[in-house]
Amino acid sequence: MRLPLIAGNWKMNTTVGEAVGLVGEMRQGLDEVTGVEKVVCPPFISLAAVKEVIKGSSIKLGAQNLYFEEKGAYTGEISPPMLADLCEFVIIGHSERRQYFGETGEIVNKKIRAALRARLKPILCIGERLEENEAGRAEEVIAEQLRSSLSGIDSVDSLIIAYEPVWAIGTGRAATGGQANNTIGFIRHNIAQLYSGDIAQGMRILYGGSVNAANAAEFINQLEIDGALVGGASLEASEFLSIVKRASEVNRAR
Description:
Blueprint: E1 5-9, H1 16-31, E2 37-41, H2 47-54, E3 59-63, H3 80-84, E4 89-92, H4 95-101, H5 105-117, E5 121-126, H6 130-134, H7 138-150, E6 160-163, H8 177-194, H9 197-202, E7 205-208, H10 216-220, E8 227-230, H11 237-253
Parallel strand pairs: 1-2, 1-8, 2-3, 3-4, 4-5, 5-6, 6-7, 7-8
Helix pairs in contact: 1-2, 1-11, 5-7, 7-8
């Protein structure tokens, strides 16, 4: 059985002090919840401070991005070895990176390779834009994103995928549980074609896009969905804890 995972992507929010306060507020409640993996992804500047707060707890730490070179004259970038000392997970290919910073499938592929070399666990984000969805091209777009992101990568044992329809991110307009489940089933089918059925069945695939405490159960109850990548709701300790609890309840019931 795939262990559910709930990851909080804090995006460009919280100062160091605010990040420390937020994870401190979450810590005890999250530690009391079993049967689900819990990850927080604060901004780069807070990784070291948050790591100290969660030391000895069940909370795992993730970064929101990385650069694909190990070192060099790349002002402002953060390399995989820099992150490997701080965290376990890293979000790669988020739609905001693709939209605002021009990340292509080739760049995402390089970043995944770099993360794996550093023994980081990538959370690969994929998803279609609204116009692509309305044109009936969602599966075509997602299949191409998978092919380009994973081209030439032989081992994906530690890879996690997050399906985030771009039209649902930060809009309050989430997909339905059934829609998300069907699309994630399609993603799993593609992974089986690219690798094997066993790898596809073992891979955790999350849903992301306006997930909150009120609608989390609708997604987590679906058989193909293994958790959530949570944005705005992860900035509220009580909201994030509620989502994690729902995932734990679903896991126990299976």
